[in-house]
Amino acid sequence: HYEACGNACPDTCSEPSASSFCTLNCVPKCQCTSGYVLHDSQCVPIESCGCLYNGIQYELGEEFWEDENCHSRCKCDPSQGTVNCWKASCKANQKCTTVNGVHHCKGSAYTTCIGTGDPHYTTFDGRKYDFQGSCIYQMAGICSKDSGLTPFSVVVENNNRGNKVVSFTKVVTLEVYNMTLSLSQEHPRKIQVQKKILKDEEAKRKGRVWLTKGRVLYESATDV
Predict the structure, then answer these.
(1) What would be one Gene Ontology cellular-component term for the protein (predicted)?
(2) Which of 58, 78, 77, 45 lies closest to 14, judged by CA?
(3) Which distant-in-sequence residues (6+ apart) come within 8 Å of 80 by Cβ?
(4) Do residues 137 and 158 touch, judged by C-beta distance below 8 A?
(5) Are 186 and 198 in contact (CB under 8 A)?
(6) Cβ burial, residue 167 (10 Å; 0-12/13-18/19+)
């Protein structure tokens, strides 16, 4: 709601008491209703903020490694909004690494699958083939029931674009960490997060997914 003399230091998920310590003069601006705080430029219920731990905001239910040696695993308790930690370690074929200040257990080796052009695919095991279907297909995802793996799905939508002989990728959608990210022909070199196009062109971190202009960098803590 709008206030002619609003607090210049709005409460946020990362600083829920910012307004109480503000020394700036009031300004005309929109303010969140009592019980709500700012998060990603939107007013959200304060109980949905998740957990602030060691200066990092975690989503409700999110798990993370507390230390740089991956000896302590923590979780943001969705029922209480508090962080609970327990002793843990990486698997035998993994090592603990730190990327952008976030600790991960990563496998000693990794593989990549690629989809390009009209479309040409390279599978995780290096096999190459062309596929001209014009429907919606799952390109990659988790099929294991291992609870230590992070569920994710990469879905592609292909169309013919006036030529039934070949098809082209129309939309690529990644679902991971309760987020939906997509790249599409309709919005070239733009990234959509939860169906909203990113306004800024700077790199932006969303949980454990890094976004930058026209690219999605997915860093998995579980080597999926």
Answers:
(1) extracellular matrix
(2) 58
(3) none
(4) yes
(5) no
(6) buried
